[in-house]
Amino acid sequence: MEWYPYHAILGDSSIFPANIYVADIDEQAVNEAATRYGFTPVVIPEEGRLPFPDKFFDIVFCSSVIEHVTVPKEEVWTLVSGSRFRDAAQRHQNEFADEIRRLGKGYFVQAPYRWFPIETHSWLPFVSYVPRRLQVPLIRFTNRFWMKKTSPDFYLPTMRDMKRYFPDASILKENALGMTKSLIAYRRS
Question: Is residue 14 part of a domain?
Fold first, then answer.
């Protein structure tokens, strides 16, 4: 593993790497961030409150994560009902958003947009437009030969979802090719 000095990420800021917390459900990922950058690693549960008091962080930065907060990872290949998956995903994403809002004095949450024609996790065109009952077998099939392997664990939010998850935020649209590619909810501290 190649080690990158913390200044590659923090630039010339006066922030100490240990004052940056990296959190994930994947213990190996957070330990790698601690080793590479000197960040404080935190393994978090898939559900429930995160182990920090209210407004613990100056800012919570969450990029391309909230769309994966859906159902337990062992269910992503077997839960093919679109309505059941959507309902569970929206409930979990809303709880996760509540935690982000509780923990951060400010926050920046980016998520790929549901209606962008190239789905960012698979690089397959229009796969996010396909009903889940067809999407899961399609991803299973394309994973056999397609250059970008993925798991159908994502529920891509709409503008309406992001406004509901983050009612105290400003919502920005990131555009590519003249279309909305991702949504960003932010609140200044």
Answer: no
